[in-house]
Write a structure and sequence with these properties.
heterotrimer, A mainly alpha, B alpha/beta, C mainly alpha, B: Rossmann fold, 2 domains, globular, C: mainly alpha, ABC transporter involved in vitamin B12 uptake, BtuC, two-stranded antiparallel sheet, 4 strands, 68% helix
């Protein structure tokens, strides 16, 4: 289907189904149950799953395929956000022009940065991209205030031109469907929210994912993996690697721009902190945690990190007392003392530990973890069962 | 008719004159070997041919066109392929993918990779690559990880990757270096077979006299950056200058 | 002229910190081949050694002084630090006052222990892994360390003053023949610079004049050969890691009075230090030190009003701009060797 082989089609369909049913799947607990705080099916979080999924898929096209580790991808995300908000300010609240402009501007910006940075490889490339992103971040805060509105962040004011606003809604919308509107379904004690904004993001996530599969399976994708594997041989194969790595860089920059544009479309605000190196680091972590070089890994990584961030950080001491209330006092207090390090504002500690554990024991990321569980469960030993995904996961281990 | 003409090439690294007044002429469809003791400048000469180094003076003409100033990939497009001392292959890719890369690269002579086609849909190219693997007896390793193979197999794969480009000149940099005798003989047989099957010129840089004398039509002896003699193998064997150069190294 | 001298001086303290962190990073990278993203965290832990020692010294007991009353008319409660009651008020006060310099002694064993534990517990498993994995795992570790510090010390910066004797400023201008009060420079920053110079000198001397250092330098040049010589390189690497941790920690201890320690100071310095290391040239110790000072001084020049007027915003981006220019013109940094970390 769609020019994909059977396995990829199944993968795409599974992701599509999960994206479609996310509001239900992510809300498995009834509203009033004590476990309701583990529900992730609220609009804000689901949108973030999809947006960061797109961001990570794009990053993976660069890092997973070519091995070039960019530490400045957040710059493209930030540029995309700013472009989108400018579209809201100048034209009106329809998200289509905003998203298109954010992709274009981020692509051009990536072309410029990539053209310069790809002159170097290895850590020198990483530092160059980092330097460009930090410069963008700092300039956005200081000199470029007329464009970015500095620390306040760029937002839409009532005296902005908005020439195409007409009588449409005064919030971001897609031909009248407001991003923040949603339908709530009550099913017994359960409650499911179906937000418009999330579905817009999900459709674009699927489109991005489909495009990524096509790139992975194309001669271009194969060549990018070849570049990662051996640049010397590539040079003696009649092709200059530069234009191809640059193309991969620009494509992944455009993905980041799309993610940034969507972020602004969900909430018409853009701040410079989106370009900071910590944000760039986050997408690196998502991709590697999920499994760099695999198709589904970045989406898993993005979902996993965003889920932990939102759910762990909401748990406070009161909640812990609720959980451990039935235990003897001494045990309860000891458990709470331990647990409180890891939740609430301490969730970063959990995140840090998770990275260490995953990187140490699962170099292929969550995808490899899933495969190990799968192999353990089905005891399938034959080589054919381990598909391209596991090949890619293995590639992350150094070839001796 | 010579396919490769090297005229008066000089190359200096700091205080070291690596190549001085090197002249070399490789006849089309011949096997030409360049031998010489360590530090004779064999590898430097080779690197000048493929564009990795640029000679200080002199000219390198391939099929009537100068290769100087061109990048390695451009020289490769002209029809010069290279086999390295340690096999340079795409270790992370499968064997068939390794061969597919040059297939796709040179397709229709456009040297372009397409972003949205599907590799598996390109039946003709996949078949071409599979035939190539059969030619080097590797069809049973089709889906193996290239990095996990033995050195001999890596060498075969590298040859396949070069040959599938249908180059007019194949440069081999010590193709049997570090190989056991059996592997060396296999490689010699493979090269002979390749030579039989297609019109190709080979230029071999080699240490191992056994390899050189079983393959070469003509031999150039290089010592201290200058060609000493160039002749057919029978005449090289007993040549006093050659013995002097080699014995000089041993002494 | 006086303004330029002032800016050079101002750049020295930050440059010293960059240089010390970059030195440790390079030691670890050059010997162990590990990209250590937790190095900033070591700097931060050093600074918190100073905080901790200060807190330990000021642990007090409470007595009720019947002779005085507080504003409610109740007998006043008086806090007396234990050190004062043990050593007498004068010595006790002095000990508290000098807690930052004393923290150097306190920090050396702690940092060595932290470094040892890190290397044996985590880093050694990553020698043969790709750099991306090393970056990730040490980044994870940095987050963990940072969060633990945040959990126990809070998120706010903690004032850690230098001893009273060094609190003033020195009028440098007079020394050089300028008018008074033109070039004034805090004593503590001078001490920081001198301290950094001593540490850098000591590390270099250690590497140059001891057999241990000779082996380590050989290991930096060609790790495998040294391993083949039958030298237990692993044990030396552990010691090198501990040494680098101590250097970073001491840089942090002494930096505490300049910038009140907070839990994210390590990360703030880490990114810049990496830029410094790369600009200096991966694997080059003199390069790291040189680049540290150059970038520190350039940063302080760029923050001059005269320059900001010509190129607005330059103070914000100067380090990155210089890094980009250097990397594009000198592919391996100022003093880098060929073939290091280009894969």
């Amino acid at each position: 289907m769609l020019g994909l082989d059977r396995k990829d089609t199944i993968l795409l369909l599974v992701v599509a189904l999960m994206a479609l049913l996310a509001p239900v799947l992510l809300n498995p607990f009834p509203v009033n149950s004590p476990l309701a705080q583990f529900n992730a099916g609220y609009p804000d979080l689901m949108q973030r799953f999809a947006i960061f999924g797109i961001f990570a898929i794009g990053f993976n096209i660069l890092f997973g395929l070519t091995g070039y580790l960019s530490f400045g991808h957040a710059a493209f995300l930030g540029v995309g956000s700013y472009s989108a908000v400018w579209m809201f300010k100048l034209l009106g609240y329809n998200v289509i022009p905003a998203i298109i402009l954010s992709i274009i501007v981020a692509g051009l910006f990536a072309l410029l940065i990539g053209w310069i940075s790809l002159r170097r490889s290895g850590i020198y490339f990483s530092i160059l991209t980092l330097a460009f992103a930090e410069m963008s971040f700092r300039l956005a805060y200081s000199v470029l205030t007329p464009l970015t509105n500095g620390e306040t962040g760029l937002q839409v004011y009532t005296d902005d031109p908005q020439i195409l606003l007409g009588d449409g809604p005064h919030v971001p919308h897609l031909f009248g469907m407001m991003m923040r509107s949603s339908t709530t379904i009550h099913a017994g004690p359960w409650e499911f929210t179906l937000p418009v904004g999330y579905y817009v993001c999900a459709v674009l996530l699927l489109a991005s994912f489909y495009l990524a599969i096509r790139i992975f399976r194309s001669p271009f994708g194969m060549m990018l993996r070849a570049i990662k594997s051996n640049q010397t041989r590539m040079n003696y194969t009649g092709l200059s690697p530069r234009p191809y790595t640059l193309a991969a860089f620009v494509i992944s920059g455009m993905y980041a721009g799309l993610a940034g544009g969507l972020m602004a479309s969900m909430d018409p605000l853009a701040g410079a902190e989106r370009m900071q190196w910590t944000a760039s680091g986050e997408v690196v972590l998502m991709t590697i945690l999920g499994g760099a070089g695999t198709l589904i890994g970045p989406i898993l990584g993005a979902g996993f990190i965003k889920y932990c961030e939102n759910i762990f950080s909401k748990i406070n001491e009161g909640v812990l007392h609720g959980w451990f209330g039935g235990l003897p006092d001494g045990v309860e207090n000891a458990l709470i003392w331990v647990a409180e390090h890891f939740v609430g504002s301490g969730w970063h500690l959990t995140l840090g530990l998770l990275f260490m554990l995953v990187v140490t024991f699962l170099p292929g990321g969550l995808v490899e973890g899933g495969q190990r569980i799968g192999r353990f469960a089905f005891r399938r030993r034959d080589r054919k069962a381990s598909d391209a995904e596991s090949d890619a996961a293995k590639q992350r281990n150094p070839a001796e | 008719m010579s396919i490769l003409e090297v005229k008066d090439v000089n190359k200096r690294f700091g205080g070291l004159q690596a190549l001085s007044h090197v002249n070399l002429s490789v006849a089309e469809n011949s096997v030409h070997a360049i031998i010489g003791p360590n530090g004779a400048g064999k590898s430097t000469l080779l690197n000048c041919l493929v564009g990795k180094l640029i000679p200080d003076t002199g000219s390198v003409m391939f099929d009537g066109q100068s290769v100087l100033g061109r990048k390695p990939y451009e020289i490769n497009q002209m029809g010069i392929a290279r086999v390295f001392q340690t096999p340079e292959i795409f270790g992370d890719l499968t064997v068939i993918e390794n061969v597919l890369i040059p297939c796709f690269a040179k397709r229709d002579g456009t040297y372009r990779m397409h972003a949205f086609e599907q590799v598996r849909r390109e039946r003709a190219l996949v078949e071409e690559a599979e035939h190539m693997l059969e030619d080097v007896n590797m069809q049973d390793k089709r889906d193996m990880h290239a990095a996990s193979m033995s050195r001999g197999d890596k060498r075969r794969l590298e040859m396949a990757m070069c040959l599938v480009q249908q180059p007019r000149l194949l440069l081999l940099d010590e193709p049997t270096a570090g190989m056991a005798r059996a592997d060396t003989n296999n490689t010699i047989d493979l090269l002979k077979e390749i030579k039989q099957k297609r019109d190709i010129t080979m230029c071999i840089i080699e240490h191992d006299m056994h390899v050189v004398f079983s393959l070469a039509d003509r031999i150039t002896v290089l010592a201290q950056g200058t060609p000493l003699v160039e002749d057919v193998p029978e005449n090289i064997k007993g040549h006093p200058k050659v013995q002097e150069a080699y014995l000089g190294e041993a002494a | 002229m006086d303004a330029i001298i002032l800016q050079i001086l101002n750049g020295l303290d930050k440059g010293s910190a960059y240089a010390l962190i970059a030195l440790g990073l390079t030691l670890i990278f050059g010997t162990l081949g590990v990209v250590n993203f937790a190095h900033g965290a070591l700097f931060m832990i050093g600074a918190f050694c100073a905080v901790t020692l200060q807190r330990l010294f000021t642990i007090s007991y409470e007595t009720i002084d019947e002779t005085k009353t507080d504003f409610l008319g109740n007998p006043a409660k008086v806090q007396t630090p234990y050190v004062e009651s043990w050593f007498g008020p004068d010595v006790g006060q002095a000990v508290i006052d000098w807690s930052v310099p004393l923290a150097i002694l306190f920090a050396i064993p702690i940092m060595a222990l932290v470094g040892f534990a890190m290397e044996r517990g985590l880093i050694k498993h990553f020698y043969r892994r790709p750099h991306a994995d090393q970056i990730l795992v040490t980044f994870g570790l940095a987050i963990v360390l940072q969060e633990l510090i945040k959990h126990y010390y809070g998120a706010n910066p903690i004032q850690t003053p230098a001893p009273d004797a060094f609190r003033g400023s020195f009028d440098f201008g007079v020394l050089l023949g300028f008018d008074p009060n033109h070039i004034i420079y805090p004593y503590w920053r001078m001490i920081y610079f001198a301290f950094a110079a001593i540490i850098v000198g000591a590390v270099f001397a250690f590497l140059r004049f001891t057999t241990f250092g000779m082996v380590v330098r050989a290991g930096m040049a060609d790790r495998e050969t040294v391993g083949l010589l039958g030298i237990n390189i692993d044990k030396r690497f552990t010691i090198m890691f501990a040494l680098a941790a101590v250097v970073a920690g001491l840089a942090g201890v002494m930096y505490a009075p300049i910038n009140s320690p907070n839990y994210h100071m390590g990360m703030d310095f880490l990114v810049l230090s990496f830029v410094v290391v790369v600009v200096g040239g991966m694997g080059s110790l003199p390069g790291a030190v040189l680049a540290g000072f150059v970038l520190g001084i350039l940063e302080s020049f760029a923050s001059m009003n005269e320059i900001k007027q010509i190129i607005p915003g330059i103070d914000q981006i100067i380090i990155y701009l210089v890094a980009i220019i250097i990397l594009l013109t000198r592919p391996r940094g100022l003093m880098g060797r060929r073939g290091v970390m280009e894969e």
